[in-house]
Specification:
This protein is an alpha/beta fold and about 190 residues long. It has helices at about 20-30, 50-55, 60-70, 85-95, 125-135, 165-185, and strands at about 5-10, 35-40, 75-80, 110-115, 140, 145-150. Helix 1 (about 20-30) links the parallel strand 1 (about 5-10) and strand 2. The longest helix is centred in the C-terminal third of the chain and has 21 residues, at about 165-185.
């Protein structure tokens, strides 16, 4: 298996978010053939087509688009906000799908992981992300699709996943994701 570049988009903007900790855990437990790059979403202005139409998109939009285009795959790790996708994440998906006809998402392999301190593990956010990605022609890995409920209880004081079952789940996700990327890399 060739080394593959994976761009990681984290749905939470908080520096010490549970979501960020789980994103790093996925990267740590994934096969060495996957190289992870984390891209911050907090500096992305809200999408406004006028900026693209005027030929002067913000530099952060250009960076997002170029990084997604250059990546072999995208990993999205997200919390749930009001039973849906966090605004910063939805904005990033929208920015990368524009201008019309120039989406950098087309055919890109992706995986989605969600977490929540609540019991259902961000189930609604996970599925809304998937639905949105399918709409921009992303090859979203159907399973495994981890929903990590009660997520705060599986981390130690340093933010490392200490629950063995959760580590195993994330490790299996990473291995399956590597295979998914290989199977879908030609489409991107």
């Amino acid at each position: 298996m060739a080394n593959r570049k994976v761009l990681v988009l984290i749905g939470s903007l908080r520096k010490e978010s549970l979501t960020r900790k789980y994103a790093h855990a996925v990267a740590e437990l994934a096969p060495a053939s996957l190289e992870f790059e984390f891209l911050e979403l907090g500096d992305l202005p809200l999408y406004n087509q006028d900026l693209d139409d005027g030929g002067a998109p913000p530099a952060s939009w250009t960076t997002l688009r170029s990084k997604i285009k250059a990546a072999d795959a995208v990993l999205i790790v997200t919390p749930e906000h009001n039973r849906s996708i966090p605004a910063a994440l939805k904005n990033a998906i929208d920015i990368a799908s524009r201008p019309a006809g120039q989406s950098v998402w087309n055919g890109k392999p992706a995986g989605v992981v969600s977490q929540s301190p609540g019991a259902i593990g961000g189930f609604a956010a996970n599925h809304h992300v998937r639905q949105t990605l399918v709409g921009v022609n992303v090859a979203v890995m159907p399973s495994p699709d981890p929903y990590i409920g009660s997520s705060a209880t599986y981390l130690d004081e340093q933010g490392k996943v200490v629950n063995e079952r959760t580590r195993e789940t994330l490790g299996k996700f990473g291995a399956a994701f590597a295979k998914w990327i290989e199977a879908n890399a030609a489409q991107a």
